[in-house]
Amino acid sequence: MRKINVGIIGLGYIGESHIEAVRRIGLCNLYAVADTNAALAREKAAMYGIERCYESVDALLADNSIEAIHNCTPNFLHTEINKQILRSGKHLLSEKPLSTTYQEALELAELKKQYPNTAAAVNYNYRLNPMVQEIRCRIARGEIGGIRMITGSYQQDWLLYDTDYSWRLEPAFAGNSCCMADLGSHWMDAIQHVTGHRITEVCADLATLIPVRKKPKQQTETFTEAGSGKFELVTVQNEDYGAVIFKTDKGATGVFHATELAAGRGCFFGFEINGSKASIAWNQEQNDRLWIGRRGGDNSVIIRNPSSLSPEVRAYTSLAMGHPEGWNDAFKGNIYAFYKYISDGMKGEPVFSTLEQAAYLVKLTETILLSNKNKRWEKMD
Description:
nine-stranded mixed β-sheet, Dihydrodipicolinate Reductase, domain 2, alpha/beta, Rossmann fold, 2 domains
């Protein structure tokens, strides 16, 4: 079997997660990496035994041996680099969000139509946890009945102190949102994916609970401590907390909140869906199991077991029951789905997020920001 040669641009925290995932997938070969930090690129290439190392996007794109590129750069670079990748004719896997504005996201989705022989995806990786896929299958089979309510949250704590800092707090690099673009978009994508509903109306309350932070003079990576070095006081513009009430196109109502200020929450991503027959819930910190609630009958906890999962789900789980799979396995599963789609000839509806779906999430984020500004319900156009 011929493997697809892969290049990765951007070698920070999330870029290294892509490196590890690609190395676990038999359908592709991690062939090259690139970063404007040349020393970092050389270090990662040497550490992982990667054949080629480049210092620019242009140099990576010029290598005709590379067939697919992962864009793991900060948000503000996504649009232009994604356009370059699409125009090169190489397959694209972009980190989220697709872009920092809906207009740019639409441009990317339209540009993709000019290249029907290439695949393009955005890395909303929670979709491909096998238990999330199992929930999707059970909902599609009607096991919980008509969906009435959807609730949940995505909570982390890596911005808990005023000494914690990230480029995600700065509009110039992240766009006009921090926690909604970063965490909320993941939550909304997973919910829309498993239910088949689209969020169409929102009423939001956003807050910047730490309005002034100590920005280190020396650059730090996501999830790392700032240390005791020199810093400058900066006024923060992007939100670090948000709550959203919403309605869907199929008549469901819901609410979720997202923040990076919840002490002790490393990656607390969860949701509960209440239907006319039963409820179903999942949290990624216990992602090997899901809960089913019933009235007039016993509640159930379903533990991941490849032999009893829905047939459509089994391709996205690899360990035997009792051997817990984690965040990195779901991350790998999403990237595997992308390369399986390519190797199968790009037939049918992909299970990963398309550019059109990712563009809708950018629009949702903008509508949430508008709702918070106007202090009222806002409808998607």
